[in-house]
Design brief:
Radius of gyration: 20 Å
Largest sheet: 2 strands, antiparallel
Helix content: 40-55%
Strand content: 5-15%
Order of helices and strands: EEHHHHHHEEEEH
Number of helices: 7
Number of strands: 6
Structural class: mainly alpha
Distance between the termini: 25 Å
Bound molecules: zinc ion
Length: about 200
């Protein structure tokens, strides 16, 4: 049997026959579908433990440090910036009209819908599909972390060209490879290909 032609997936760089793996496309779709709901749920993450009147009451339930992040994700340029930005980019690329929305929520609904409807095309030909996929993934992860509390960030195994597997988080500030001492910044670390998961023999 002939081996079917394959090339690196435009999202994860692992060999793939389509330009983007079905699984990678599915993950983008799931993230897009999740974002409008996460945006609304962040409302409650904004005001954790809002019970006492003066804020000095003894109820020390939820810690507060997350709330600023929630504000950022809900503000213009947060989730709105990610999905609205990429949807606008797509419209300009295709010479479609960009609607004028006033509210952040309306932009998010429009942006996610536009990206969802055009996801197959984005995976087939968009030059920045990898950046789109990574931004969706990290935005969803950040929002979920804020909503669910202090779950430790998921660690993702990525492969350094030297063969070493590095375990990074989506909000990593940077990492140094213990194998070859290469220093990676945030963007470079997230651009490394996913490490092959070793199947238990
Ligand atoms: Zn892939
Ligand atoms: Zn290395």
């Amino acid at each position: 049997m002939e081996t079917p032609e394959s090339w690196p997936c435009a999202v994860c760089d692992k060999p793939s026959q389509p330009r983007v793996h079905r699984g990678c496309e599915d993950r983008m779709r799931a993230n897009l579908e999740a974002l409008p709901g996460l945006y609304r749920q962040l409302e409650s993450a904004l005001y954790p433990g809002r019970r006492g009147g003066d804020g000095r009451s003894a109820t020390r339930t939820a810690p507060l440090p997350c709330s600023l992040d929630a504000v950022d994700l809900r503000a213009r340029g947060g989730i709105e910036g990610v999905v609205g930005g990429w949807a606008r980019d797509l419209c300009e690329r295709e010479q479609w009209t960009v609607p004028e929305y006033r509210s952040v929520e309306a932009v998010i609904d429009w942006g996610t819908k536009t990206l969802l409807v055009n996801l197959p095309m984005i995976c087939d030909e968009h030059p920045a599909v990898k950046e789109i996929a990574h931004e969706l993934q990290s935005t969803v992860a950040q929002a979920q972390r804020l909503i669910t509390g202090d779950r430790p960030p998921r660690r993702i195994p990525v492969a350094c060209p030297c063969g070493q597997t590095l375990r990074i988080t989506l909000d990593t500030a940077g990492v140094r490879c213990p194998g070859c001492s290469e220093q990676y910044g945030h963007t470079e670390a997230l651009s490394l290909p996913l490490a092959e998961r070793r199947a238990a023999a």
